[in-house]
Specification:
- By secondary structure, this protein is an alpha+beta fold.
- It folds into 3 domains: 13-109, Beta Barrel (OB fold (Dihydrolipoamide Acetyltransferase, E2P)); 126-162; 174-211, no CATH class.
- The protein is built from 5 helices and 8 strands; from the N terminus they run E-E-E-H-E-E-H-H-H-E-E-E-H.
- The protein has helices at 62-68, 126-131, 133-136, 140-162, 203-211, and strands spanning 24-36, 41-47, 50-56, 76-85, 98-109, 174-175, 185-187, 195-197.
- The strands form 2 sheets. It has a 5-stranded mixed beta barrel. A 3-stranded antiparallel sheet has the order 6-8-7, with no helix packed on it.
């Protein structure tokens, strides 16, 4: 296996456009798929922003070309090369007008055949998806959901910040104060025989903060 010594990513895969033609690109991610046409090899490289095509042809160093021929789905790779215009445009992806003519290829990790294809809107049953959750989270639709959640949360936090609110974390566990509901207890390793519990009156923390001058 290769390593990342001396390598520095220049951009994410989905960020390249025609404006980058002629530039040197350093990218890394997972192999979505690789098409070996004999004298040509095209590899779709994926990260959380999208896909960019890596191209290997007769001008590619033979060692790099042979290494590209071993690529399989979900291999983790890093590549350096020149951004150029694609001979055949792919209108289905934002980077469909360009490709990277690879000059250096590093295989960082190999992968066995995944239990399901890492694609959008997969119809794999939930039990299998959750068993391999780390693979399921690589799928584009799941990534988009996490990104949307981040953006919504950021908008809410920015709004409250503009209104003078402070975000203060209060304890998740506290001393048990038995009330009407059952306690959820967590044993203490530091004090054997003693327990922490989920707060049954979390408003006490809010009241404590307001008494301390944090009105928002």
């Amino acid at each position: 296996m290769d390593n990342l010594k001396g390598f520095r990513r220049s951009s994410y895969c989905g960020e390249f456009t025609e404006k980058n033609i002629g530039e040197t690109a350093c990218v890394c991610g997972w192999v979505q798929r690789s098409r070996n046409l004999g004298a040509l090899i095209f590899t779709d490289l994926r990260d959380r922003t999208g896909i960019v095509q890596l191209a290997f042809d007769e001008d590619t160093d033979r060692g790099v070309f042979e290494k590209a021929g071993t690529l399989r789905s979900e291999f983790v790779v890093a590549a350096t090369g020149k951004v150029r215009e694609r001979a055949s445009i792919n209108p289905d992806i934002p980077t469909g007008k360009i490709e990277i003519e690879v000059q250096e290829l590093r295989i960082l990790a190999k992968s066995e055949t995944p239990p399901f294809e890492i694609v959008e809107n997969s119809d794999v049953n939930d039990a299998l998806r959750l068993k391999y959750r780390y693979l399921d989270l690589r799928r584009p639709d799941i990534s988009k959901n996490l990104l949307l959640r981040h953006k919504v949360t950021k908008i809410a936090r920015d709004y409250f910040d503009e209104q003078g609110f402070l975000e203060i974390e209060t304890p998740m566990l506290t001393k048990s104060t038995p009330e009407g509901a059952r306690d959820y207890l967590v044993p203490s390793r530091v004090h054997p025989g003693e327990f922490y519990a989920l707060p049954q009156s979390p408003q006490q923390y809010k009241q404590l903060l307001m008494l301390s001058g944090f009105d928002r």
